[in-house]
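Quick one from the shared queue. A colleague (R.T.) flagged Integral membrane protein as missing a structural entry in our internal table.

Convert sequence to structure tokens.
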Amino acid sequence: MEAYSAYWHNLFNFSGTASRKYYWWPMIINYILGIVLVTLIQSIAGQPIQDIHSFSFNTLSNIVLFLVWLATLSVKFRRLHDSNHSGLWILMEFVPLIGTIWFFILMVLPSKANRWS
């Protein structure tokens, strides 16, 4: 839970570092929470989540999605810094297939002494 708490506390922190633990635990927790929440909302609403057209629901879900995206972006920058790479390496994700694989490799690299510590 410490890693997940740090994930949200560093929402706007694009400098510094994040160890593998501080990157992977929030990613796993967010993935599981997403599945649980979507399943729960769909079962309560009785229809697929794409078919829910409520202004308040759409607004709330867009705000939550933006905050999760921003926190994930910042932890990716910090994780890259921890493995002694510039945050600009995040652009590798835009290269189809190869970029995704390479970015995954960057996320599993061990921590190194770096200039962002």
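The CA atoms of residues 55 and 61 lie 10 Å apart.
The chain has one domain: 2-108.
Added to the table.
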